Amino acid sequence: MTTYKHTEKYDLSDEHYDEYDNALDDLADRINSLNDRLTTSNIENMISESRQKLDKWRSDCYHLIDQFYEQKCREFDRHVAEIIDKHRKEINRIRSNTATLIHKQDILPRDIDYITTIISQLEHDINEIKEKYFHINIHSLEINDNLIEIKRTTNICNSTVISPPYKTMNYLDDSSKILCTNERYLLVHLNSNLCLLDKDLNIIKEKFWTQGYIIDICWSLTLARFLVLTRNYLYLIDESTMSIVRIQKVPKLSWWSCTCSDTYLYVTTKDWGSNIYQFTLWPSIQLAKRWQSPQTCKQNETINNIIYNKEKLALLIYNRLTESQIIELRISTTFDCLWSLNLDIDYDSRSIRCCLLNNDEWLVIDWNTSNLYHISNDGKLKSTCDYNSSPSCATMFGTNMLVISTIDGINLHKL
């Protein structure tokens, strides 16, 4: 290791010599210190946290693949059960008809021909069950460099980070401003339709929506469905068929926000001292627990938004006594508070929403003031910035794209 030390003398007066000599010695010490900080052991310590993130990403991907595999196995088992049940019902019908003919005194040749034809057709169908019904198309899992980006970290609200949108889509009517992604598609309410958009904001599929104003949307990996929440009902949306099914086991209440873990669905009510209803997702959607005030929030508070992430729940809470907005991170099983941050928003507005960012950080969107609040994963306010055209909702689309809905339309930003 090279060590720098000042030794050369200059022809200076004694008065200035000591001053310059001491300054140069200090600089040499600082250079040596910087060199020491770049030793292998220190570098290993500095990058260990990032390597842990890579390990966590790999573990999460394995978990995601396992969940997807299990979901497809369940779908296949249901498909097989439906086919077998269909053929079994046909066999029972033929058996019943045959038994009737056996006891019939005047059996005609056409009766025998009819039963023979049906049995032959059924034999043919059963022989071809595997080829006709049990075929599975499997596509290779695509991996590209954009899944992991290695770069310097910055504040999301830095003006150099949120650059002007590179893609926009305008509304043509009073569409809901709620957004939700499942990593492949973005689901939005656009011009009276539910629309699936790709990462270039192209409409892939759409379905006319007549079920009422959309309050919130979340994605369930377990069900492989979007869940769309209206003022009183919750609906399942299949991205493949765009079918709309109302969940019967969710009672008709005044709802406001929803989110999903791998196991549970959480839905909040629109009232003071908001309740949080917890439903199982599999094998069916059933009420598991009802969380009430003061565990959810105080009686003079209401929950504006709820988002699940890694066994934790982020809650946006409005307090009508202090007229303040608070974001809290809770443990999802006990509702114990891990941290709480009082935001500088002093009015009762339901147009406050939260978005999960990379590295378990958060973005709070304030429609009234057009402000974005970037919050660290330990509950500290990192930065605040203005957003041109009042923002309503935001969501990450992959790891490097941020989608923000506004009063005018949808903006797509590269981070």
TrEMBL record:
<protein>
    <submittedName>
        <fullName>Uncharacterized protein</fullName>
    </submittedName>
</protein>
<keyword id="KW-0175">Coiled coil</keyword>
<dbReference type="InterPro" id="IPR011047">
    <property type="entry name" value="Quinoprotein_ADH-like_sf"/>
</dbReference>
<feature type="coiled-coil region">
    <location>
        <begin position="17"/>
        <end position="44"/>
    </location>
</feature>
